[in-house]
Structures are given as C-alpha cells and as structure tokens.
C-alpha cells in the first residue's frame, strides 16, 4: 500500500461519485434526459466530454508501450487524430439539427429513420455492443493495474471497486453525470501527463532535447520507420492510419456526442479544439523514449515502471500518486461513456425495434408486461438501460478475469473493424439521396458477415485465412469494400426514397 | 442557404484535408517526413512533421469555423420544424 497514492485515489473516487450523482440530480429525469442530457452541454463540458472519452487508459498506457516496442510507429496515434474527427466538422452540425428536430438520441436510431428500416437499427446496435465489450475490458484492465500498483490488491478486485463507483454515477447521473465527471478527469489527465512528461526527462537527462540527443546516438532506429528490427513497413503504418481515420468518427459513442451538444455550432467547435488533446499524447511519447533509453518493459506496466525510476527522490510518492490518478481518470472517463452509450444503444436500438415483433410480444407477455409496451413506458426504458449497463459491466469484468479462454487482443481486432462498417450507412445516408433501406441492410449484413467470418476463419483455420487474404489486409477494410459495393448495388436496384423523407434529412 | 461561397469553401476544405491526410501516409510521409534531421527543439523531424500537420489542421479549422463556411445555419428551438430543410 502506498499511503499518499491510495489517499489521492480514494479521495478522487469519492469526488467523482459525488459530482456524478449531484449533476444527475439536476435534470428532469426521463430517458431523453438520461441518454442525451437534455442536449444542454455547454462549451466547457462538451470539450472535456469529447477529449476525455477519446483518451482512454489504452492511450495512456499503450502509447509509451508502443514506443518501446515499435519506435516511431507510435506516432500513428497523432497522425490519425490529426484528421480523425474532421468529418464531424462537416456533418456534425446537420446531425445535431436533425437529431433535435426528430428526437433522435442514438446513431442507429437516426439511420433507421433515414432508411425506414428497424433492421438497420438492430444490426448497428448489436454490432456496436460486440465492439464495446473488449474496449471496456481494456479500460477495466487499466483500472485494475493502477489499483494493484497502489494498494497491492489483485487486478480484478481493484477494477471491481473502481467500476462500482463508475456504475453508481452512470446509473444515477446519466449523460449529465458522465459529462461533469469528464471535466474533472480531463483536467487531471492533462496536468498529470505534462508534469511527468517534462519532469522525468529533465531529471534524468537534463532536458527533453538532451534526451532525444541520446536517443539519436544510441537508438536512432526508434525515431523513424520501419522502426527497431524493421518491424513496421511504411505501407502497414499507412493502412492502419487510414483505417483509424475512417472508423474514428463512426464509433457510436462519438457520434452520439453530436446529439448531446447545446447547439450545432458547438459540435463544430469541439472538433476545432480536439487537436489540443493530441498535445497531451506528446509527453507520453517522451516517456516512451525515456523507457527506450533505460531499458523499460514493452508491456502496459511501462508507465508505472517509469515513475519508479526516480524512486528515492522526495517527489516520487507525489509523482506516483499523480500518475495513478491520471490512469484511473483515463480509464473511467472512457469506461463510463461506453457503459452509458452501451445501455442506451441496447435498449433504444435493439430492444425497442424487436419488441413489436411477434417474438418480442410473446416475450413481453412471459415477463408479465403485456399491458404497456416499453416504447411508451419512459420510466421502464430508463430502468432497462440501467439493467443493461450493469450487465455490460459484469460481462466485461468476468472477461477481465478469464484471460485463459478468449484473448482480449484478438477481440480488440474484431472490435476495431466493426465501427468502420457503419461508414457507408452514415455517409450515403447523409449525402446520397438515392441510398435506401434495401441498400443499407444489404451493406451492413455483407460487411458485418465478412468481418466476423474472416475473424473466425483467422482464429480457427489460419491456413485458409492466408489463402483468402494473401496480402494480410485488415479485415475491417475488406469488410468495408464488400459493404460499400453491396450498399451501392442494392440501393440502385431498390426503390427511390420519397421526397418528404429526404427533406426531413436535409437532402 | 447553400451559397456559392460556402459551396466552394466546402470543396476547398475537403481538398485540404485530403492533402493533409496524404501528408501523413505513404508515399508522402516516407518521402518527406520520415527522417531524424533537421531537429526542432530537440524533437526528431518525423515527430515534428506530424505535429506540424496537426497545427496546420487546427489553424484551418479555426478559419473555417470563424468564417462560417461549412454548414453555417442553426435551428432555433422555436423554429417551425421543416424550416431547416433547404434543398
């Protein structure tokens, strides 16, 4: 147990809890409020909501780790971040307007209406949940790692405590609770990372520049591609960046942020200020190079290992507490958004459309809810969202412990190829008046089947996968091509959407 | 409300961001950016290059935002629904 760090961490958990719950009490209640915070986020909250959500425990722990493992390949985070949110600048304002007018709160809801097809919503919603779980497990792992370093508890116990707090403020506070806690988390992360990122190279080498002088002399291969042992060809690096750029703004919890902003202009403003969050990645790169010079481990413990380099210095306990705090903030600010969005998506995008089907009606009767459908029962919806949030957290927590069965890294591979499958639906839906429901369904089914199919083949029959995909292209990219082709062909074959519908979507 | 000015603004903006993306990947990045020298403030040029693109994108976004070139109209809540749907 490290007393100072433990004090800071527990105090922080308490504050996050109080702020989240108090912020949630200020709303009117109801699903619309719970999901989209009454569309009332101002510039400050909006800024930190976007930034803190994107900078996950994965960015914080993974960036220095990637430098140690693969050198300048880690710059790809900056490269895709430089352009990744820009599409939102172009369509975000319009999405905000349409959302406010039509009462949409999720991405799938909007496109189900645009394509007049509940199936689109169910497909998108279900795929999203598959993508969310591994992403959540990574956040839990970050929290567990920190709690282990601070208190010596096993990872799963620490993760359970932290996510217990997250669950309480997500459940009590809804979108507003998530927003206000993100403000605190964002400020902490920015401050902590810059302080340690400058302080550590300066203490050890004199300055950041002097540290790079040493890297140039001792390990120049870490500064350019293809990196140490030529592990990263430039083409591979480029395709990863392009994939990430295309998929970035498609993540449903990112897309949903358009609906939570107070005005359409504000959506654009948050895109403008997004690069300032990238400058927070920079000190993590410096830390990666400190680890390269001092022979740090190439796994996700490297950040905490670095802090221990200055063990014995008076500032060490304070520094350690600060970093622990930052990692926790990063984990929680992404985890809470994923839980909150996951719950909303499961209920509004998957359960509600299925409810009106015969099977759904039968199920409802079996549950003794025959009198009132969930669609008309606002309180019931909020309750259902809460149940799903708890289940999602539990599933992720169980997966965190059960590392023997399915590898998290493998699941992440699948997770990252899913949001990119929404690209044709979103782009054609917003910009191509000829796109229709037949095309959208065909595209989604083709894309998602390709991705899942290739993933399963890769895991079960690597030989067959090598024959099918000789160039080792990313499965998300193959899925995207199939998806786009299917959507274009079936849209052209299907009926032309009527003018009244297109007008609602400003087409 | 799609004026010629904003139409051309959008096109130029899309062109700019396409070029900015190209600068970060093959073949432009390995050709121009992927090297250690010249160093700026001690940072290797490969890193400076990426940071410069971020800075430049930020500047362009600020200009686009200030000039209200992209999708500049706002719905006020009391507006008649359907008002926003200019063809």
From TrEMBL, chain A:
Record membrane topology: Multi-pass membrane protein
Domain of life the protein comes from: Bacteria
Q: Does the keyword field hold DNA damage?
A: no
List residues traversing the bilayer.
6-23, 44-62, 74-93, 119-137, 157-175, 187-208, 241-259, 271-294, 314-339, 384-400, 406-431, 438-457, 477-494
Q: Which GO terms describe its cellular component?
A: plasma membrane
Listed GO MF terms = transmembrane transporter activity
Family of the protein in this entry: Belongs to the sodium:solute symporter (SSF) (TC 2.A.21) family.
**What is the name listed in the Swiss-Prot or TrEMBL entry for this protein?**
Putative symporter YodF
Per the UniProt record, the source organism is: Enhygromyxa salina
TrEMBL record, chain B:
Q: Where are the transmembrane segments?
A: 12-29, 41-65
- Keyword field contains Transmembrane: yes
Return the protein name.
DUF3311 domain-containing protein
Write out the entry's keywords from A to Z: Membrane, Transmembrane, Transmembrane helix
> Do you know which Pfam families this protein is assigned to?
DUF3311
């Amino acid at each position: 147990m490290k007393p100072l760090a433990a004090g800071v961490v527990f105090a922080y958990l308490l504050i996050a809890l109080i702020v989240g719950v108090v912020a949630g009490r200020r709303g009117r209640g109801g699903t619309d409020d719970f999901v989209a915070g009454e569309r009332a986020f101002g510039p400050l909250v909006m800024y930190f909501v976007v930034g803190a959500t994107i900078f996950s425990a994965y960015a914080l722990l993974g960036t220095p780790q990637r430098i140690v493992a693969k050198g300048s390949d880690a710059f790809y985070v900056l490269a895709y971040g430089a352009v990744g949110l820009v599409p939102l600048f172009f369509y975000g304002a319009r999405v905000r307007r349409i959302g406010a007018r039509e009462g949409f709160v999720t991405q799938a809801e909007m496109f189900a209406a645009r394509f007049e097809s509940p199936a689109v919503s169910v497909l998108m919603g279900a795929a999203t949940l598959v993508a969310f779980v591994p992403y959540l497990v990574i956040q839990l792992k970050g929290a567990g790692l920190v709690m282990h370093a601070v208190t010596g508890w096993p990872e799963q116990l620490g993760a359970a405590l932290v996510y217990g707090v997250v669950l309480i403020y997500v459940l009590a506070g809804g979108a507003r609770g998530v927003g206000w806690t993100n403000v605190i988390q964002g400020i902490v992360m920015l401050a902590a990372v810059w302080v340690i990122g400058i302080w550590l190279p300066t203490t050890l080498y004199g300055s950041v520049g002097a540290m790079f002088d040493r890297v140039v002399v001792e390990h120049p291969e870490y500064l350019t591609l293809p990196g140490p042992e030529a592990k990263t060809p430039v083409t591979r690096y480029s395709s990863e960046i392009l994939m990430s750029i295309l998929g970035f703004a498609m993540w449903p919890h990112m897309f949903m942020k358009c609906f939570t902003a107070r005005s359409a202009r504000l959506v654009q403003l948050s895109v403008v200020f997004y690069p300032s969050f990238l400058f927070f990645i920079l000190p993590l790169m410096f830390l990666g190079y400190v680890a390269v010079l001092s022979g740090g481990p190439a796994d996700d413990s490297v950040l905490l290992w670095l802090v221990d380099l200055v063990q014995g210095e008076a500032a060490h306990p304070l520094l350690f507490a600060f970093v622990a705090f930052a990692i926790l903030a990063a984990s929680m600010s992404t985890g809470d958004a994923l839980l909150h969005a996951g719950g909303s998506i499961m209920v509004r995008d998957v359960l509600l459309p299925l409810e009106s089907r015969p099977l759904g009606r039968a199920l409802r009767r079996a549950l003794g809810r025959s009198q009132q459908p969930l669609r008309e029962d606002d309180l019931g919806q909020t309750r259902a969202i809460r149940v799903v949030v708890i289940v999602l957290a539990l599933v992720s927590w169980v997966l965190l412990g059960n590392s023997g069965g399915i590898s998290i890294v493998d699941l992440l591979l699948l997770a990252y190829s899913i949001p990119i499958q929404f690209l044709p639906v979103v782009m054609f839906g917003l910009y191509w008046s000829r796109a229709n429901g037949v095309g959208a369904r065909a595209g989604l089914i083709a894309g998602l089947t390709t991705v899942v199919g290739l993933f399963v083949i890769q895991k079960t029959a690597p030989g067959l996968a090598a024959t099918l995909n000789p160039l080792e292209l990313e499965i998300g990219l193959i899925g995207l091509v199939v998806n786009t082709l299917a959507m274009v062909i079936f849209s052209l074959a299907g009926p032309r959407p009527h003018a009244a519908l297109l007008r609602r979507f400003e087409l | 409300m799609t004026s010629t000015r904003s139409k051309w603004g959008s096109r130029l903006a899309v062109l700019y961001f396409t070029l900015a993306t190209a600068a970060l990947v093959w073949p432009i990045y390995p050709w121009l950016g992927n090297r250690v020298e010249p160093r700026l403030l001690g940072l290797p040029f490969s890193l400076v290059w990426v940071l410069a693109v971020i800075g430049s994108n930020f500047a362009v976004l600020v200009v686009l935002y200030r000039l209200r070139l992209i999708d500049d109209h706002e719905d006020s809540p009391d507006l008649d629904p359907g008002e926003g749907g200019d063809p």
